[in-house]
Amino acid sequence: MTEENRFKRDIKDHWRVSYNQNGYPHVQQGWILPPERMKEFDPFILMADDWFKRGTFSDHPHRGFQTITYVVDGRLEHIDNHGGHSVLDAGDVQYMNAGWAARHGEEAVDDDLIHTFQLWLNLPHELRTTTTSYQNVYIEDAPVAEVDGGSVRVYSGEVAGVKGPMESLVPITMTEIRLKEGAEYKHIIPENHNGFFYVTAGEIEAGESAVPLSKTDVGLLTYKEDGTEAESELTIRAKTRARLLLYSGVPIKEEYVAHGPFVMSNMDEIRDAMRDFQAGKFGKPAIK
């Protein structure tokens, strides 16, 4: 497809994240993707911006979806009840497929104040009971494409000629875009991907309407609901030095229910998940 024929993305909606001051140990939280609007974000469900101390996200269960956790600052300790243990630093990402029965903890190391972005990614009905798995994507393993006036680090999908290492059951793109002041970049993703970005530093103009956005703003992108994997482009202009995380994926287009730590196709399946956890079917607690 020629550049002239590409679908040109615009900003469908945008908002600034507001924060709740929760006190100790979950110090502060904001919703990048608010749960009450989850039907707009398919295949994504919600995304949280969290600051927390140790004791906030100790042993807990999940079923029926995937999580993608990006470490902004501090050290994040992961423990699961299958013997997994790791520590992630700034710029690292952990992917989890909760599948049938995940039980894990995500904690700050020692006295760190940890800052993370956690995205919930849906699963189609037939994959909700798949085997639980985890994958760490360390910053040095996520390839970087140099672009005019900046760079694109690719955690998932194929963007700017490089492929990210994340192995999501539902294929997505996840990139961190860094631009110098005055740079203009055209981000290429399939036209049928629903997508959004979160500005983590600086000021930009984005989309065909050149919508001005700055730190802690979210931009929800237009897309072709009946489109194909043909290329589309999003134009981003950096008014100052800028950085943003951009995610995209093909909508699943299935009904689902998100309730507590579970995402299932209906409330009967949510109740089954609750009963299974209470009956010990998720296994032993996730502790060292």
Would you mind describing this structure in some detail?
By secondary structure, the chain is mainly beta. It has one domain (3-249): Jelly Rolls (Sandwich). It is 4% helix and 51% strand. It has one helix spanning 267-278, and strands at residues 7-8, 11-16, 19-21, 28-33, 44-52, 60-62, 65-73, 76-80, 85-88, 93-97, 102-108, 114-122, 133-137, 144-147, 150-156, 158-159, 162-163, 172-179, 184-190, 194-201, 203-206, 211-214, 217-221, 231-238, 242-249, 257-259, 262-264. A hairpin with a 4-residue loop joins strand 21 (203-206) and strand 22. The chain starts with 6 loop residues before the first strand and ends in a 10-residue tail after the last helix.
Shape: globular
CATH class: Mainly Beta
Q: For the CA atoms, what is the radius of gyration?
A: 19 Å
Number of domains: 1
- Tally of helical segments: 1
Helix content class: under 10%
Report the biggest beta sheet as strand number plus sense, adding barrel if it closes: 7 strands, antiparallel
- What is the average of the pLDDT values? 96
Q: In order across it, which strands form the biggest sheet?
A: 2-23-20-25-18-15-14
**Total strand count, please?**
27
At the fold tier of CATH, the topology name is: Jelly Rolls
Strand percent estimate: over 45%
Helices and strands: which structural class?
mainly beta
Order of helices and strands: EEEEEEEEEEEEEEEEEEEEEEEEEEEH
Distance between the termini: 52 Å
Instruction: List low-confidence stretches.
Output: none
Q: Using the 3D structure, state the CATH architecture.
A: Sandwich
InterPro entries: Pirin, Pirin_C_dom, Pirin_N_dom, RmlC-like_jellyroll, RmlC_Cupin_sf
Binding site for Fe cation: 60, 62, 104, 106
Family: Belongs to the pirin family.
GO molecular function: metal ion binding
